[in-house]
Amino acid sequence: MNEDLVIGDDGLARPQWAATSDMLRAYYDTEWGMPVRTESGVFERLSLECFQSGLSWAIILSKREAFREAFANFDPEKVALFTENDFESLMDNPAIVRNKLKIRATIANAEATLMMREEGGLADFIWSFKPEETPAPRTLAEIPTQSVESKELAKALKKRGFKFVGPTTMFALMEAIGMVDTHLVGSHRRNSSGIWA
């Protein structure tokens, strides 16, 4: 048996990180790696991955509802209009991660998202970097942290005014929205997105 997989009380195999709390298990079982193709959905995941940089995903996930409330449910049209007063309010909000650069990046990324509509929209643009094949990791150590595509995507987004979109963060986004399937071989979620057979 793969030591990186844990069999839950329900008999299902999950990676260790997804077996540490009900919150992470629910996220793993129902959402992580499932296709997200709407503008606001992709903008939300991109924003949360930006805030996660250097922190644990559990921290971000536990604050997700507060982030949604603080950032107008990640409606890029609303976030793009945030003023300096809005910025100060966000910096005073203990329910979210109060990082000046990440908050400013999220507002800038909302503006850049609106500009992306001229190129067909953020979601389609990001999905255009979907690789030809997905990794098939058997252990956590085999899961890549970036790829050729995530490097190209990071470069392309930076060119269009996006911030905090490095290749590692973009690979995490690609995992989260189903563009690659890094569920471990043997996990009950492997191949569950309908994108990779």
Automatic annotation (TrEMBL):
GO terms for molecular function: DNA-3-methyladenine glycosylase activity; metal ion binding. Its EC number is 3.2.2.20. Pfam families: Adenine_glyco. Keywords: Glycosidase, Hydrolase, Metal-binding, Zinc. The keyword Metal-binding applies. It comes from the Bacteria. The keyword Zinc applies. InterPro entries: Adenine_glyco, DNA-3mA_glycosylase, DNA_glycosylase. Zn(2+) binds at residue 183. This is DNA-3-methyladenine glycosylase I.
